[in-house]
Specification:
By secondary structure, the chain is mainly β. Helices cover 12% and strands 49% of the residues. A hairpin with an 8-residue loop joins strand 1 and strand 2. It starts with a helix and ends in a 9-residue tail after the last strand.
Length: 166
């Protein structure tokens, strides 16, 4: 009986650790065959301007979230693996858009360790027929309160197995 209790306790502890560490979910971007590229221009931060994305990006699945409160239902996915050409810097991001709309609701993109964001749909397009999000000279502002900005153009692919409306 004592070994049964020890076995059950060990299994319970392992389960708790897996949940706490995020094991068993698909929250981390995984390799895709889809190319993506982001070009940063007019950066107010030295060294951030350039081309990010020299191959296929890593992507999460697009998921639909319907939060409680005033935030609308959103479709969301993340990407990483956008390596800066000629540098060791990388870019990764979290893109969110409302169901059945054609522009981003909010974009968070980190370039070389510095996060930038925008909560405006202008200069963005969610192109479901081509499975991608397009940015056209989109101004993103640093989330650290410094007021630093970058202007971003490019394409971020989306996985094809999206929920309806996403």
């Amino acid at each position: 009986m004592n070994s049964f209790i020890k076995t059950c306790t060990a299994m319970a502890a392992a389960s708790v650790l897996l949940v706490a560490c995020g094991g068993g979910n698909d929250d981390d971007p995984t390799p895709s065959n889809e190319p993506g590229v982001l070009t940063v221009t007019e950066s107010s931060v030295d060294g951030l301007s350039g081309v990010y994305g020299n191959g296929a990006l890593n992507l999460t699945d697009v998921e639909r979230f319907n939060p409680v409160g005033s935030t609308p239902e959103l479709c969301s996915f993340r990407f990483d693996g956008a390596n800066k050409v000629g540098s060791s810097a990388t870019a990764f991001g979290d893109l969110r858009y409302r169901s059945n709309t054609d522009g981003l609701y909010v974009a968070y993109i980190t370039f070389a360790g510095r996060e930038f964001a925008s909560g405006e749909a202008i200069d963005t397009a969610v192109v479901r027929s081509l499975d991608r999000v397009e940015l056209t000279r989109k101004v993103l502002t640093a989330t650290d309160g410094s007021g630093a900005t970058v202007r971003v153009s490019g394409i971020v692919p989306m996985r094809t197995n999206r929920p309806a409306g996403c």
